[in-house]
Each structure stands twice: as C-alpha cells, then as structure tokens.
# Entry
Amino acid sequence: MDCIVRIIAYLLLLAIHVLIYIFLHSHFYFILLVAMVTAPILTAAANFWLRRSVSVEILSGTGKEAYARKREETFFYLKVKNTSWAMSLDAKVSLTIANTFFGTEGTFTVSVPVHMHGTYELEIPVIPDFPGIVTLKADAIRVKDLLGFFYLKKKTVSSASVTVMPEFFGKGTYDRTAVESGMLESEESSKRGNDFSDVQEIREYIPGDKLMSIHWKLSAKRDVLMVKDRVSMSDRQLVIVSELLSDHMMLDAVVEATYGLVRTLIEDGTTVRLMYWSMGSYDYMEYRIDYVSDLETAFARMYYERTYQVADEAASHMAQVHPEIKSYLYVTGGGSGADVFVRENG
# Structure
C-alpha cells in the first residue's frame, strides 16, 4: 500500500511539472522532467542488480559458554552483505525462529539498510522460554528501490542454532532413601581420572582384548604386545528415566526437574545413568553422567528426540528391554509440574 501511494504521488508531481513546462517553456523544467522520467528506470535497474548481489547470513553467539540457558538472554547475528555499488534504504528480512524439541515456531520481519559494497550487521537478542535447540532462519530478503516504488524478493537459506539448557537454581534437596532404592551395581567405572579395577596379572595380547588394556611400556621392552588383566570392581549408579511428554508445560517441567536432580546428584559425587526412550531408534538412549559436561552433552542429544503422545512411553518398555534394572528413579509429568519417585521394574 505504501508503494502505491508513492507511485501515485510521483505521477501527480510529474504531471504538475509537465504543466509548468508547457506554460513556461523553461530549460530548467525540461531537464527536471527528463530526470524525473529516467530516475525510476535507473533505480529499477539498480534494484535488480542489487537483488542479485545481496546475501544474508545468520550466526549464533553464546559468548564464553558452550550453551545458552532458559530465560537468559542470548544473541543471533544477522549479516546483510552487498557486493555491488547499488544500495537500498529499506530491505526487509523475513525470519523464522523455532524450537524443534518443543515444536514451537514463530515468524517476524526486520528492516535493515543495504550498504554499497559493504556489510550491515544486526544483533538480535533472544530470551528462550523453553530449553531445546532454538534455530533462527532467514527465509527471504526483499530489497526496495531508492524511490520506494517496489520490492524485489530473494530467497535465502541461512540459519543458525543455539542449544538451550534448563534453568538451574542451585543444589536442591532430594530423598536419599529414594536415591538408594534406585541404585544399580555397575561394572567398571568410566569416570575420568579414576580407575576402579585392580591389575591381577600381565599377559600377552589375545585378539579381542581392549586396546586401553595394553601395557605400552612393557610391550616396547619385550617387542610383543602385553595387556593388563584386570579384576573389575563395581561402582554404584543411580538410574534415572525421564518421560519426554509432548505437552509443553509437562515437558518443560520434566526436563527442568531431570536436569536439576542429575546436576545436584553429580555435584554430591553420585554417578547417574540417565535414560529415555527414543521414538526414532525404538530403543533406550542412555548416558553415564559423572560431570556437568556429560549432563549437557546428554541433553543436547536428547533435544533431537521426538516427544511422546503416551504418558508412560518410556516406562512401558523397561521390563522387556532392561530386566536387569530392578528399580529406577522415574521423572514424569504431574498435576502441577513434574513427579519424581522410585518405580519398580516389572
């Protein structure tokens, strides 16, 4: 509508100058009429040139942190690059922001200038309402000619993502009796920096032995591969199973409760075995969590999963797939948020 108004106003102004020239026969008005007639042609040609030369890039930035956090400000950066000498005072970039884990999506438009043979950068602040993978995508850019008569549209394919972790309010309290009930004896810890097994003897390598068991110094001296035969010592793991429900409020509550509980436990020195049912793989995904970095890696992978329509989707497969687990700490949706309790397997 704005473009139509501009065109009508320009035509009226042109008509007025034609009438003035007819009455005055002034050379100045003749030159002005020539300029007014040729200007739309030149700006239209420049706009077509600009459309071919302009490009859009979306970048993400989380500062020093590897991940962003729910309800904390993070940033995307929009870069509009122009390799031509044409320009536009008003270009509109159509953007889509989505959280693939929660299935939410929204669109908005930003207006930016396009500089001659240069790059314009715009910082876009985002405060995520939910954890997950937040993606900002540039769908198209529409460049306007200098006279404001029309836009030319160009599709773009640039996007960037930020992985958003749940809120963490500090170490919370939990029922230690429930934790003890959900413990599972586990063979041979993988905790970095610790060795929970004793070397019983050193023998020659047999095909099938783990490379990590090779005694490299002794092998170099004897010129034959020697391995350390170990006696495993068990450490205790707490099994936590989360229901990734499709309801937004319940999913948010379950994810936040799981994150807070696991982080509190590992900061207290408890090893956690985090599990959830994968609809895509039709199997349990499980991660051993010893450190906060392990926890965040597990959550970053979990965000690619499809959520459940059935309330007990994760728990319903446990007895068949993992009969060795007698009980586990179960995190599911409740009436006012998330419920956490010990569930017997079977």
Summary: Helices lie at 2-24, 27-53, 176-181, 216-222, 248-267, 292-302, 313-316, 318-321. The chain has eight helices and 17 strands. The mean pLDDT is 85. Residues 176-191+234-344 form one domain.
